[in-house]
Amino acid sequence: MSVSSAGSPHDSLNTIDNSINKAVFYFILSAITWLALSSLLGLIGGIKTVIPSFLSTNEGFTFGRIQAMLNTTLLMGWCSNAIFAVAFWIMARLSSTPIKHGGILLIAGVIWNIALSLALIGIFIGDLTAYSWMEFPSYTSGIFLLAYTLIAVWGIVTYRHKQNDYSYVSQWYILGGLLWFPWIFVIGQFFINWVPVRGVLQSIVHAWYINNVFYLWLCPIALGACYYFIPKLSNTAIRSYHLSALAFWTFVLFASWSGLTYLIGGPVPVWLTTTSIVFAVSLIIPALIFYTNLIGTALSSFSQFKNNLALKFIIFGSAAFILHLFVKMGLSIRSVDALAHFTMIYEAHHWHLIYGFFSMVFFGAFYYLVPTLLKHSYKSNVLPNFNFVLSALGIIILLVALYGAGWQQGTQFANAELSFLQIANDLTFWMQLKLVGLTILFIANLLFAFNVVALLLSKLLDVLPNFSNDEINPNT
Amino acid sequence: MKHFSILLFGIFIVLTSSFLGLISSSLNQLGGLKQSTESLELDDAGELVLVDGDPLYPMKLSGSSEQGHMEYVKLGCVNCHSQQVRREELGNDLQRGFGQRVSVPRDFILQSNMVLGYSRLGPDLSSVGSRKSDLNWHLMHLYNPQITSPGSLMPPFPFLFETIKISEVAATSGALEFPEGSPYAPENGIAIIPSRRAVALVEYLLNLDINYNLPEAVVTKNDTGE
User: Fold this and answer.
1) What DSSP state is assigned to residue B42?
2) What is the pTM of this model?
């Protein structure tokens, strides 16, 4: 291994970490800021489903706009920035390539966040689109794309000189996710905003878009993180690693084709939804492999799991993900869909993926990454552990509430005697429970942000006195 | 290096295949749909025959309905309301009167901001215009759903209305007519006037109706006897 000027492997790790520090910290701080904002929006939305008149006099705070801002901050704010932070760092580590030109990455990050801020203002004043998870106004999509192009250019510059082969499955997932995203984004924007097709064709593109953003952008990166961190933190090899390549190809292929189950029973050709159903059900293959690869490995080193905070988050996330896949398979069955369609089960399913899986895995990754980059660890693990307890509790309550609400809605829809006014009223208990869940998540997310920032500050406090004592070294 | 190019190739194939298989093929199949003047109707002998001469369906929305549609999008009504009537075996949409036939792709060909919807916290609105045709009811409901539907989870949209003082002489045409003794009614001498946006939105709602015949979709539950 010939890493620039590095002697021991340990030095080379440091070179890699240092090379990317600034950009990674920028993304980490952006991610936690958007996460905090999203949990505030989630809370407001939650209150509104219990007290509909809450904050209703201002147009910008009406339920639909809060929901649009929530989705946008979650997806384009928290998830994307977290991906930029973690994905590049893992890639750099695994391919033993120090990151060059981190400056481009930083500029791209700034542009991305400008686009997002504009998008939120745009939604607030009423420029939102009709499409969930792509509500950001069409005039911001070009800016997002510009930022992403810079990131991609930077990626190409860096990995042109990659030193190792792509021999880890983590790298496949991350490379795949990074390449798929811009493409999904452009197809969605092209057919819906730039050169809009009409009618149900838009709904078809939209369903394809949401599904691919979830399963070929968020999922691959988070899976890449799982495959990277689980063996590393538990000090064991992945169980049945030889199956992981099969899981990779079957998961991405089947998931990408499974998107139109959102439209079952809708005004679209039946063969479309049938095709997607077949692929959705086939996800059983990768799901079982994920179970062996990820959960199996964790179970075989249970003692590590109990003591390692990052690992706890990541295992929780992996387990949530496998459950999520089974729910997805279930929802694609027509008779289940007959009950679940149009209910909150879908809202639950989205939270399940974004919070239960993605966010939990990334919390774990951050709790490993931030101390490693700072070379400074938590003096006490009490608050980070409390974060885990709150996040886990909050998401479980939220999911119980939403799946429960959806189930009840579905059974009541079937009874044509019951009016929608009645059905909505009967949801009160579940909506209150949902609010409890969202409140706990709100606190958990703030605690997470606090923990990350506190570590940064305590590192700064450690470093600052040295500055005043020593001659200031221009190279640091 | 060989390894890497196979990987890239695979990554490319995965997304391209699902794009071609699901999106391009639908563009092919559905891209050519046009409005139609034909419909399948029952003749005297009870047989289905193709009849020409209907107006062009689906009908184009008027200018202010189109504006109302945009308000519907901007206010996020799609979060709680769907606009699609599903087949019999997938629920009881027909029985609930969401429409007198199921929705088909042709119903939507003129729309460029699709609001099929994914959630039904509130009822489906495909044919709300034929189900609820009272302008004042809709305005009142938007102003505050509690007036017409006590306990509703639908949010109020008071910012679509203006509160004005009425002078003795000026006519109060267009003001909301609150039910007798409603606790939400304004004091004497004050009137609640819908803005143009509110009127456009309601005009759009009143125009929502899929109870017309298409060659591939016949109104089945035709109890108006047309």
Assistant:
1) E
2) 0.92
